[in-house]
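## retry 2 of 3
previous attempt timed out at serialization; input unchanged, resubmitting
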Amino acid sequence: MRAAALLVGILSLAMMSLAGAQTIYKWVDAEGITNYGSQPPPGVNAERTATKLHGANRQALQTRINNSAEQYTADTARRQENKAEDAKNKVRSKEEQALRSENCEKAKTRKVKYNISRRLYRELENGERDYLTDDELDQERANAQKLVNEWCD
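## retry succeeded, writing output
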């Protein structure tokens, strides 16, 4: 009889300890950080572990687990926003580089044209030509060189 009561007591304790067990998921994010939570994020390979809660405040622990999952979600969203911003910056950089390259070629062509020309003119509104003086021509050549220096690396 004592053995049966002892066996019932041991089984009761075992059942109580199982009742205190909770399933926790463990996963590693893209940055190599190990995370724990009650629910793994979608699309993440998570390892299921059983955690026994001995004398712990279960509500506080659950709150911490939920906060960890929310933090992971927020961090994932932030990383995705950063990737999107980086992609936009790459596009802008390529567009700026293309513009610089185009303006560099135009500036070089203008410089060569101004340096080999003996006479340059501005076209007036009425269609007539106003030829540049030697000083104006030197100034235009200097401006052309300045544009080459500005747009070309």
